[in-house]
Each structure stands twice: as structure tokens, then as C-alpha cells.
Sequence to fold (196 residues):
Amino acid sequence: MKTRLLALTAALIVTAFLPLLAVGIGKSTADAPKAPSQSATPEQTDSENRFLALVAATCEDDFCPEATKAAAIIINTCLCCDKSGFDAANVEDYASETEFDEEQVKAVQSGSRLCITIDGEIKYIPFSKASRGYTQADEKYPYLCEVASPWDCFDADFDKNAECTGVSLSGINHLCQNGCSAEEAIRWYLPGAEIK
Fold:
């Protein structure tokens, strides 16, 4: 109960200062991502480009590099648990209008080497674009808990009836745009998680 009250209090404080923090936040879209590495083999480059496409399809245009890294960590964790969730062989299915700049490409590469563990095990992490102000617990994923995500109401596609289990990517982006690292933002939604 104490933890929920602290989380709610923190969420209300952040929400109160949100308009001040939001002023002037944004990023410019740059050129499409470059090839990951000149010395990589064609197979490695192809694999990295597929992963980059998966992350780009998940992210919105306004995602900052740290949020992009968090999305990469979450997707890499999901792939470690269940590759069937993404058809990585069919990269065209993930074509996106989101184009990453060089900093975001580096963030994806950094996140692609990390996984989320809970109680020492890599666990599948469900995620969605946004929540309705809080995420839900789910019997299918007993390691998840309900977490406040009040900033999701500022998302252009906010749906007060949306049901989000796990992680709100919109919430991750908000936290990262306001100073959190990718790891800190992930831990907001997954208290007790380790990222390594």
C-alpha cells in the first residue's frame, strides 16, 4: 500500500510539473540510419538492420535516444524469450515512417546487447503504445504489477479505455525526455527488474 501511495504521489508531482518540462522538448528528424558497421559481415549487418527496423516500427517520431534504447532493450528481451512474436525474416512488415538519426541508431545498438531480468530470469515483457493512466497486472504475467502512467493522457492517441499490460512506450518516452535513463524508465514500469 505504501509503495502504491509513493508511486501515485510521485506521478502527481511529475504531472504537476509536466507543462513546464514539456516546453521546448522535441527532436528534429535526420537522415535514415546508416549501416551499423563497416567491418561487420553481411549476415551481421542484415541482422542488425532487421533489429533496427523492428525498433523503428515500435517507436514514434518524437522518441528521444534514451527511449529508443529502452524500446530496443524491451524488444531484445522479447526476442530472447519468444522469437515467434516478431517475424524478423520479413523486415518489410515493420516498415515505418520513423527514421532514426545517428544518435538513435547508436542507442538501438546499445540496447540490443541488453536484456531485462526479473528474479534472475529473462521474462517476456508485454508493451503497448500507451496506457489509460496506469498499466495493469495480468495473470499471464504474474511478475508484472499495476503502475501509474499519468503522462499517457498527453499522448495524441490517448484512449481512456485502452488496456495496457506491462510497459507503456509513450510513458517510457516521457520519462526519458524528462531526464530518466532508459534503464530508470524501464524500472518505473517493472520495479525490481535488472537490465544486463
Summary: The radius of gyration is 17 Å. The helical segments are 2-22, 42-58, 65-81, 102-111, 169-177, 182-189. Residues 5-38 have pLDDT under 50 and may be disordered. Residues 69 and 109 are 8 Å apart (CA to CA).
